[in-house]
Amino acid sequence: MKRRLILAGTAGVAALAAGAMLTARAVGGMAEYVAEAAAQRRAVPVPPAMLDLIRHATLAANGHNAQPWQFRPREDGVDILPDLTRRTPVVDPDDHHLFISLGCAAENFAQASGATSRPGRIGFDPAAGGVVTFRAGDAPPATPALFAAIAQRQSTRTEYDGRPVSVAMLATLTSAAAVPGVRLVLLTDRPRIDRVRDLVVAGNSAQMADPAFMRELTSWLRFNPRAALVQADGLFSGASGRSPVPSWLGPLLFRGFASATSENDAYARHIRSSAGIAVFLAQQEDHEHWVRVGRACQRFALQATALGLKHAHINQPVEVAALRPALAEIVGLRGRRPDIVMRFGNGPTLPYAMRRPVQSVVVA
């Protein structure tokens, strides 16, 4: 009897060990993930190759990390085209976030090119669905601090330490984000921050109650390092401090345990720990001005990074159309459509998001 129990116990331990090994292989390891993320953020050589400039451009912020862009190199610069196969039509039905993402990428490209080879100007061509252009030529020089921050910038979705940001830093952030046609409003007083928090919670509740939104969001979640490496896009759970699980199990756990209450509590804590909130509003509601918003919020994010600050997007009051008027009223611009909402403050560095290989986003 004793021998059988020992054998059974040994078999059980072996089964557990085998299961653990299978799970480890299924989810992959962070060491490989971190190494690849670092390689994607390696320095741009001087003089740079076009692919190095594009690689830096792809490190820009973008919704769901869908990376909805294509790059068409030219002798005098580059065209940045929308990749409509990577739309997120539920959360972004009018491609508002998509064109903002193109503006973010264009700003990165301009900073990288201007700092290492040729300065130039960003433009917009409404033909063919809207193309963002960068043409080398007479232009102001790039800002070294913004260029240096490209590889370190990330959307840091966790609690910050609650420390305020100095008036001088706020002025530097405002100056960096100055783009014609875009208004930036900074909120640092607690009453208005709390009102924005309430809109974020209301928006998140509405989104999580929408089955179509939840299906789309789940399709962009990457629940472990292996999936994030293989697909090279989407929202990696580890970048938000969550433990890895196998890809087949992740969606089941997310649908079964993620609730509006728990997510709202997290958003409330995150906002409470932030030093302030930045709201960007375009003068007009069109693709060109959304690209300008992208440039402004990318410049803000890069300058925040250069100052040692973190930031994260909290766009629910923009994405849920019914909440936009209330947000516009909070920032004192009734009748305008808010475009981007970001919180900022002092916080930790989390794992960086993955990007697709540069060759996969270049077109002839």
Please tell me about this protein's structure.
- There is one protein chain.
- By secondary structure, the protein is an alpha+beta fold.
- Helices cover 46% and strands 15% of the residues.
- The chain contains 14 helices and ten strands.
- The strands form three sheets. The protein has a four-stranded antiparallel sheet with strand order 1-2-4-3, with helices on one face. The protein has a four-stranded antiparallel sheet with strand order 5-8-10-9, sandwiched between helices.
- Helix 3 (50-57) crosses helix 4 (96-116) and helix 4 packs across helix 12.
- The protein starts with a helix and ends in a 19-residue tail after the last strand.
- Mean pLDDT is 93; it is low at 1-22.
Notable features of this structure?
364 residues, alpha+beta, four-stranded antiparallel β-sheet, 10 strands, globular, disordered N terminus
Give a short synopsis of this structure.
This protein is 46% helix and 15% strand. It is α+β, with helices and mostly antiparallel strands. Strand 1 and strand 2 form a beta hairpin.
Q: What is this structure's SSE topology?
A:
Elements: H1 2-27, H2 30-40, H3 50-57, E1 69-74, E2 77-82, H4 96-116, E3 120-125, E4 131-136, H5 144-149, H6 167-176, E5 182-187, H7 190-208, H8 211-219, E6 221-222, H9 225-231, E7 235-236, H10 250-257, H11 260-272, E8 276-282, H12 287-306, E9 310-313, H13 316-319, H14 324-330, E10 338-345
Parallel strand pairs: 6-7
Antiparallel strand pairs: 1-2, 2-4, 3-4, 5-8, 8-10, 9-10
Helix pairs in contact: 2-9, 3-4, 4-12, 6-12, 7-11
